[in-house]
Design goal:
The chain has 163 residues and is α/β, with parallel strands linked by helices. It has one domain: HUPs (Rossmann fold). Helix content is 44%, strand content 19%. The chain contains 6 helices and 5 strands; from the N terminus they run βαβαβαβαβαα. Strands 3-2-1-4-5 form a 5-stranded parallel β-sheet, with helices on both faces. Strand 2, helix 2 and strand 3 form a beta-alpha-beta unit. The model has no long low-confidence stretch (mean pLDDT 94). It is an enzyme of class 2 (transferase).
């Protein structure tokens, strides 16, 4: 059985992420979407919220599991007996960073390979940061995220304005 990991912050999950998830799920027997708990960042959503949202928007993909993690990706991969890490690339700037990370991960664990998928052109500009920035100014994010995620973003933005 081939297990792959698609790691990320997913804060929030976008149509670009979902495109990579669907395509990756077709390449492996089991796809683990690893939701990173990065203590160096202040995310809009908690890890638990991001896991719940990802479970909701991927519930129709039978071989996808959503699992939070922290620490080294290669340790997470070993724990799950995953042999490949899947990363999405939007632009050359992504490639430079992702190549460095893939090479570092390969040095740490030569049994875990990184596979790069180029993003569908219609999502090549899209990032979670873009979604949050547009939402912060009240812009229309419906073209960037599923309706369920859009509702969660607006709830969070409304709550943040009150705080």
């Amino acid at each position: 059985m081939l297990t792959g990991i698609y790691p990320g912050s997913f804060d929030p999950v976008t149509y670009g992420h979902l495109d990579i998830i669907r395509r990756s799920a077709g390449m492996v027997d089991e796809l683990i979407v690893g939701v990173l708990n990065n203590k160096a960042k202040t995310p809009l959503f908690s890890v638990e919220e991001r896991v719940k949202m990802l479970k909701e928007v991927t519930k129709d993909i039978a071989n996808v599991k959503i699992i939070p993690f922290e620490g080294l990706l290669v340790d997470f991969a070993h724990k799950l007996d995953a042999k490949i890490v899947i990363r999405g690339l939007r632009a050359i700037t992504d490639f430079e960073y992702e190549l460095q990370m893939a090479q570092t991960n390969h040095k740490l664990a030569s049994d875990v390979e990184t596979v790069f998928l180029t993003t569908n052109l219609q999502y090549s500009y899209l990032s979670s940061t873009t979604v949050k920035e547009v939402a912060a100014f009240g812009g229309d994010i419906s073209q960037f995220v599923p309706e369920y995620i859009e509702q969660k973003v607006w709830e969070k933005m409304k709550h943040r304005r009150r705080v």
